[in-house]
Amino acid sequence: MRSGMIAIIGRPNAGKSTLLNAILKEKVSIISDKPQTTRNNIQGIYTTDTCQFVFIDTPGIHKPHHELGRTLNKSAYLSLQDVDLIYLIVDASKPYGSGDAFLLERLKQYQTPCFLLLNKIDLLKKEELLQHLASWEKRFSFEQIIPLSAKKEENIEELLKTSEPYLSEGMLLYPKDMVSDHGKTFQTQEIIREKVLLKTMEEVPHSIAVVVERLHEEEKEVEIDALVIVERDSQKAILIGKQAAMIKSIRLLAQKELKALYGKKCHLSLYVRVEKNWRNRQSKLHQFGYALEE
Length: 294
Ligand SMILES: Nc1nc2c(ncn2[C@@H]2O[C@H](COP(=O)(O)OP(=O)(O)OP(=O)(O)O)[C@@H](O)[C@H]2O)c(=O)[nH]1
Prior knowledge:
Helices cover 34% and strands 24% of the residues. The protein is α/β, with parallel strands linked by helices. It has 2 domains: 2-169, 3-Layer(aba) Sandwich (Rossmann fold); 184-287, GMP Synthetase, Chain A, domain 3 (2-Layer Sandwich). The strands form 2 sheets. Strands 1, 2, 3, 4, 5, 6 and 7 form a 7-stranded mixed beta sheet that branches. A hairpin with a 3-residue loop joins strand 2 (42-47) and strand 3. The longest helix has 18 residues, at 245-262. The radius of gyration is 20 Å and the shape is globular. Guanosine-5'-triphosphate binds at residues 10, 12-18, 31-33, 35-38, 59-60, 119-120, 122-123, 149-151.
């Protein structure tokens, strides 16, 4: 057997979480079209007959405007230490930009082999893809450049096959049937946060955090009370909506997915609370689960 760790890094919205879920054939990372959806390093474990891949899905690296943003970037950089392989994933439907240049500069500090994954090829014409390949090839000494579509699950097998020799022979790092390092409470919070991201626009998505306050599981049902935290009264009003319609639709969407997660009936109650400027307050970042995981 071979086993090892692979960090998946890239700019926000490049498709890191979509790739991880496509490899695992299971949803361990939430996905949305809003940048900075992923806020914690998430390990996804994929074990075949010959190999155990431990992937680390990281927050998208971006220019931070808050303490939360700085913590997210640090969290992504931390994942680059001690991994066997790095996947730099880029949205190939977007032109090369200063954010990409910044990431390449950063990668030069590491000796770890790096694959460039040109994602979202389903949105490109063949000529455009060839142009991208030629332009990226010149910029960095990538071990491999692999075009793929995480969403359409194209070229994923090829990616895994090419990655396998970069991992070391030896013991498995995790039990064979383990898929993620995060427990049900974390997953519950993330599912609720995903539904808020799905339903809200503009400044609301980035300003929220979700905390499960009570989780009571019995044989046939689970009761969950969760807090959705926002930064301003105006955001609270948007989140609750007219006659509480918005929060109700978020609750119903989340409840449906939680029912599938727990495999039983789920009663979800959501409460909205304002915590002014929480994204700049270290104590709140800790409280809401965004402290650095070394
Ligand atoms: N067309 C297309 N869309 C994709 C593909 N991969 C991801 N997406 C979409 O891109 C958006 C962002 O995907 P995520 O997987 O959340 O991206 P991420 O890199 O994890 O984003 P952050 O958490 O913000 O860092 C979502 O709307 C995905 O559906 C792809 O191969 N093709």
